[in-house]
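Dear Dr. H.,

I hope your travels went smoothly. While you were away I took the liberty of generating a structure for the chain from your last submission, since the lab meeting agenda had it listed for discussion. I wanted you to have the full record in hand beforehand rather than looking at slides cold. The sequence, exactly as received, is reproduced here:
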Amino acid sequence: MATDHPTIRPLSASDATAYASLRLLAIDEAPESFLSTREEEEKRSIDEIVARIAATANQVVFGAFAAGTLVAVAGLRRYPLRPVQQKGFLWGLFVVQTHRRNGIARRLIVAATEHARAMGLTHIALNTGAANASAIALYRSAGFEAVEEDPCDDDFADDAEREVQMVLRLV
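The corresponding predicted structure, in token form, is as follows:
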């Protein structure tokens, strides 16, 4: 059963195994939302996973813990190139089915937004599937706005293959 107020905190090396399991669950549930496959993720070493979730000056992965169990994650990464280093990218937001619709995703977005401001970022971008109406609504309610559609979108047969880029301006 979902708890009302899971703890939200940056992940650490000790969370790597739980993160790897949650990511596999996310890929199983929505493979179209990921660039990697389950098979690719299963091959990642624990050291690779630790590096992926390690908080640095340019990235952080937040986790939501209910009764000590990792039930949701969201990552924030600064764009590495100098001309766009003031911008960040929100990635990998996922909440376990039994904990959805309890405000956890919104709390992860708030944590990422506060962290982005502390990093001195001016924008946070994200991509989500065009057919994922609930995600788009969540991001809009958090202040994200859809960016003009890319002209190459006409090449896709249906919305299931399209993505929407959204941006939150922090200043």
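Two observations you may find useful: The longest helix spans residues 104-118. DSSP finds five helices and seven strands in the chain.

With kind regards,
E. W.
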